[in-house]
Amino acid sequence: MRVQALRGWGYPVIGMTVAVVTCAAVAGCGSSSAPDVPLAAAAPADLLLTPDDLPGGFAPTQLSVTDLVAGNRGPIESATSAEVTPPECRPTADAALNPELDKSDSAVLAARSESASLVELVTTVRRDIESDIRVTTGRCATTTTLIGTGNLRGTRIVTRYTELPDPDLGDRSSALEQSLVLRSSVTTTLPDGAAMTQEGFAGYAIVGRPGGGSLTVQLTVAGDTPPAAMPPAVPPAPMSDAAFGDLFDDAVSAAAS
C-alpha cells in the first residue's frame, strides 16, 4: 500500500535513474519547477539516522552532498539517451531532484558492509514520489533499458520492482504525507552476452515536521554486483524485506520527531 493522502502534492545516493545506468539497485523527485518546502526547525543533518542505528555489519563512510550530486550527474545525463520500454516508464525524479541539492538544504549518511552500500538522504527539497510510483508499479513494474551511446552501447538492463509496505510510524502516522518502498532486481546484459544481477531496496517518503514544514527522506541499500558471467550469478539480497522495512521506519520516524 502507498500513502495517498498528500499535503500539497507528491514527492531513488539518489535513486532510480542512477541505479539503472550504473547497474545498481534503485537507490532514488519533485518537478524542478515546484517550490521547495519550507525549512524545518531542525537541520536535515540533525534528522539522519545515527551510526548506532545502522544494521549490524554496516559502518559509516565518507560521502558529502557535493559528492553525491557530482556522482549522480553523469549517470543521469547518460540515461536521457537510453531507450526505455515501456516508454512511459522512463524515470525523471532523479534528474529533477539532483540539481536542487546542496549542503544548505540536504544531509547525507553513507555506510558500507562487506557486500552492500547504504545511503540516506534527508532534504528540504521535495521529491516527486508520484513520478516514482508511475515508473515502478503497474505496467512499469518490469522495465527494459537499452543503452544507445558510449562504452556501454548495446547493453540491456531489465529492472523488476516489488512494492513493499509503507513505513509504520505508530501514533505519529499522520506525519507521513506520502511514501513508496521498493525492492528491485536489476539484470544487466552486456553486448557480449555476459550478464550480472544486483539486488537492492529503496524507500522514499515525505514527512511532516512538528510546527510545520516537510522533509524528503530517502534510503537506499544496494548489494554489490558480482562479475558478469554466462549465465549470471544471482546474488543474495543485501538484507531481508523486513529488515529494510524496519530501518526505513527508523529513518522516517527520526525525521518526523
UniProtKB/TrEMBL annotation:
It comes from the Bacteria. Residues 77-96 are annotated as: Disordered. This is DUF5642 domain-containing protein. It comes from Gordonia insulae.
